[in-house]
Automatic annotation (TrEMBL):
Classification via Gene3D superfamilies: YhbY-like
UniProt-recorded Gene Ontology molecular function terms: RNA binding
Designated name of the protein: (rape) hypothetical protein
Keyword check for RNA-binding: yes
GO BP terms: Group II intron splicing; mRNA processing
Compositional bias (Polar residues): 54-67
Keywords attached to this entry: mRNA processing, mRNA splicing, Repeat, Ribonucleoprotein, RNA-binding, Transit peptide
InterPro entries: CAF1P_plant (IPR044599), RNA-binding_CRM (IPR001890), YhbY-like_sf (IPR035920)
Pfam families, per database record: CRS1_YhbY
Key word RNA-binding present: yes
Disordered: annotated segments: 36-69
Length: 344
């Protein structure tokens, strides 16, 4: 018994001596033993009871007010690629889901647009635009401006794709105008079928002026009296809304033809040589003119749209229907078959 007690005492003394050595020579800054206990979180201070004078009601923080815009036109996702005259027959999402976000805009979303208030005046907007543009540029000023912004290495460039002139693009244009007099716009895809429409919406919605146009390249000038601090309020769309459902473009039986005649026209178009081969995101500036010339001698025209995509094929058909004009009778295997219609 005595030997065991002595051995325990010696072991205890050796352990204490080792602890003393460790405390002397081992720095606590670098000492990190395994399985070190975690520091307990500090307990929150106890709330003291308030007196009747201190128990005043806290000020209520009101939610952010919706953005108010004085622009006199309806807000749409795309201004150049939608036709307000064609009414949709259905919607793919409820109308209450506004792409501007819940409660962020003082306009109601109808499923296709956020209409402007009845108090907005187009004439006042035109007067303000003319004041901002100021005096017309001289030929020397236009040449200097074009030479600065028309080249492909210009840093002030916006790419316009198949969405056309979108709502958020208007805000991008004004952001470029903060530090530059003009902005270069490169147009590609389906919108290039109607460049006049693109120029019209760019000038009307942004308030600028097109000073240069070459095929699919545009230079949009901001105006002499433009002030970035007084730019219009443009609320941004947070996401792209689902497109509504429109009436069917291609009918089973074309207007003015019987079922057998329509079937024969489609077969003739599929076996006819292709007038043009369109590429994806290409430049389609001369397509309308070529189709009109072909309709002077042919009754049916085929456009080869391989690798373009079926959605873009239908967009091209919709635009050609109004621009040529003609009747699309078939979309199959990325081929567009157009009929010129019956001559009056």
């Amino acid at each position: 018994m005595l030997s065991t007690r002595r051995s325990l005492a010696l072991a205890k003394d050796s352990f204490l001596s080792l602890r003393n050595l460790q405390a002397r020579f081992v720095s606590t800054e670098y000492y990190d033993p395994p399985f070190s206990p975690l520091s307990k979180p500090a307990k929150p201070a106890k709330k003291t009871k308030k007196t009747e004078q201190d128990q005043s009601p806290e000020p209520m923080t009101s939610p952010t007010a919706p953005v108010t815009s004085d622009l006199p036109f309806d807000f749409r996702y795309s201004y150049s690629e939608t036709n307000p005259a064609i009414k949709p027959i259905g919607f793919r999402e409820p109308k209450r889901f506004s792409p501007f976000g819940p409660g962020r805009l003082d306009r109601n979303w109808t499923g296709t647009c956020a209409p402007a208030s009845l108090e907005s005046d187009q004439r006042q907007w035109a007067v303000v635009r003319d004041k901002i543009l100021g005096e017309a540029l001289t030929e020397e000023e236009v040449a200097e401006l074009v030479e600065r912004y028309r080249h492909s290495d210009c840093s002030r460039q916006i790419n316009l794709g198949k969405g056309g002139v979108t709502h958020n693009m208007i805000d991008d244009i004004h952001n470029h105008w903060k530090k530059a007099e003009a902005v270069r716009i490169k147009c590609l895809g389906v919108p290039t079928l109607d460049m006049d429409n693109i120029c019209h919406h760019l000038e009307e919605k942004s308030g600028g002026k097109i000073v240069y146009r070459n095929i699919n390249i545009l230079v949009l000038y901001r105006g002499r009296n433009y002030d970035p601090k007084s730019r219009p309020t443009i609320p941004l769309m947070l996401w792209k809304p689902y497109p509504p459902i429109y009436p069917r473009l291609v009918k089973n039986v074309a207007d003015g033809l019987t079922f057998e005649e329509t079937k024969e026209m489609r077969n003739r178009g599929l076996h006819a040589p292709a007038l043009m081969k369109l590429t994806r995101n290409g430049v389609y500036v001369n397509v309308v003119g070529r189709v009109r010339e072909e309709f002077e001698t042919e009754e049916v025209v085929r456009l080869d749209c391989t690798h373009v995509g079926m959605s873009d094929c239908k967009r091209i058909g919709v635009k050609l229907k109004d621009l040529v004009p003609c009747v699309p009778i078939l979309f199959k295997d990325e081929q567009i078959i157009l009929w010129r219609g019956k001559k009056n």
